[in-house]
Write a structure and sequence with these properties.
404 residues; mainly beta; 5-stranded mixed sheet; 30 strands; YNCE-like beta-propeller domain-containing protein; signal
């Protein structure tokens, strides 16, 4: 299944017009982004083949060397409390960066006015805006444009694109040593230098549509979803190899976002085709159980107090709320008049959930207190993995903002 059929299968794409709004400053002027020196003595690139096993041992043992220590062993997200911004980001202006996949632009929203203040052209097919491990760069992933575009979040300025093959999604290992590019069309997971994006090691995958992932509590392994073949991969982070692979149950599973629970014991995988989430013991990597949430389950976001998870149901225009303590759904918020909530993130104080409306050329601001729609903001065509910035946390694991 190609990317065009990805859009056509799950709803008509609304043809929108990018809003080009004059800003007080020309944030799209090319400028140098603050990029640290690359790490020395990196190994040469080579490829490995995945191990086809239904179950495998966890990479396990002591935490990944170089990973910041977990603040609370019972809560991986303890550093993400409301307003708990690191010194590195306290001076960054509060903005929402929206990659418009069909318009080849990034819309910049001022969340205090709910207005688009800038629209910036980027290479073809921007998918996600991803915070770097050190929180000092936001990377725009343009998979079909074969480039990542750095943004300096302190100034909002976009620098020149960096050539990278097929960057559908982007993650960073918990020790900050590698960027991990999910090269969906190329059927590869590519470990790169996190600053220069130079290739270090390439893993070829046998599944189709590898794109979303998360990391274990000890940082030793990551679990990635393969959207088009319905597979999950378990990857040894330290040794950069696939140690297990399984296909999700069902006729045509279509796994999307992946998220580990605050206690690090349970993994959740949104399944757009099965209209719910799969619940998995990541260490054992055995057969998952299923929880229905809504049509087109897609994105997963942890509340700032680590008590709940928000599940975006793109096909029906709703957000389900899962309570971690009980494992049950406590609410379903429907967008008035319908919509297509996709990817996004929480405001620094956790009071607003920001989501792209994939098929409606708009962005939603949703109150996390009662789920009411605060605002819907017109943007470009097919808005996708928007990034809220800044966010609480010490370092980023990538995607639209997995901070710990």
């Amino acid at each position: 299944m190609n990317r065009t059929s990805r859009y056509l299968k799950f709803g008509a794409v609304s043809i929108g017009v990018s809003l080009v709004v004059a800003a007080a400053c020309t944030s799209h002027d090319k400028a140098a982004v603050r990029v640290p020196d690359p790490m020395p003595n990196m190994p040469a690139m080579h490829s490995v083949q995945p191990v086809q096993t239904a179950n495998a041992e966890a990479a396990g043992g002591a935490p990944l060397p170089g990973m910041p220590p977990v603040l609370d062993p019972d809560d991986l997200y303890a550093a993400d409390r409301p307003g708990d911004l690191s010194d590195a980001v306290k001076g960054d202006p509060y903005r929402i960066y929206v990659p418009n996949n069909g318009s080849d632009t990034v819309s910049v929203i001022d969340p205090t006015t709910y207005k688009v203040i800038d629209t910036v052209p980027v290479p073809h097919s921007p998918e996600h805006v991803v915070p770097s491990w050190d929180l000092r760069t936001l990377w725009v992933n343009s998979d079909q444009g074969n480039a990542v575009t750095p943004i300096d979040p302190a100034t909002g300025r976009f620098a020149d694109p960096v050539p990278v093959n097929d960057p559908y999604n982007l993650y960073f290992t918990p020790d900050g040593r590698y960027a991990v590019v999910m090269a969906e069309a190329a059927h590869q997971i590519v470990f790169r230098d996190p600053h220069t994006m130079q290739t270090i090691k390439t893993i070829d995958v046998t599944c189709d549509g590898v794109n979303h992932a998360d990391f274990s509590a000890d940082g030793r392994y990551m679990i990635a979803s393969c959207e088009f073949s319905g597979d999950l991969l378990k990857i040894d982070v330290a040794n950069q190899k696939i140690i297990a692979q399984q296909r999700l149950p069902g006729l045509n599973p279509m796994p999307q976002d992946v998220k580990v629970s605050p206690d690090g014991k349970t993994w959740y995988i949104a399944d757009m085709q099965s209209s719910g989430v799969w619940i998995l013991d990541g260490d054992a990597f055995g057969k998952p159980t299923y929880l229905a949430t809504g049509d087109g389950a897609h994105g997963l976001y942890i509340s700032r107090d680590s008590s709940s998870m928000y599940v975006t149901n793109r096909g029906e225009g709703s957000i389900s709320v899962l309570d971690f303590a009980t494992g049950k759904l406590t609410a379903k918020w429907k967008i008035p008049g319908g919509g297509s909530p996709d990817m996004g993130g929480l405001s620094p104080d956790g009071k607003v959930l920001w989501l792209s409306g994939r098929y409606n050329s708009e962005v939603y601001a949703i109150d996390t207190g009662d789920g009411h729609l605060i605002a819907r903001i017109p943007v470009g065509t097919q808005p996708h993995g928007l990034c809220v910035w800044p966010q609480p946390g010490r370092y980023s694991l990538g995607h639209t903002g997995i901070l710990r």
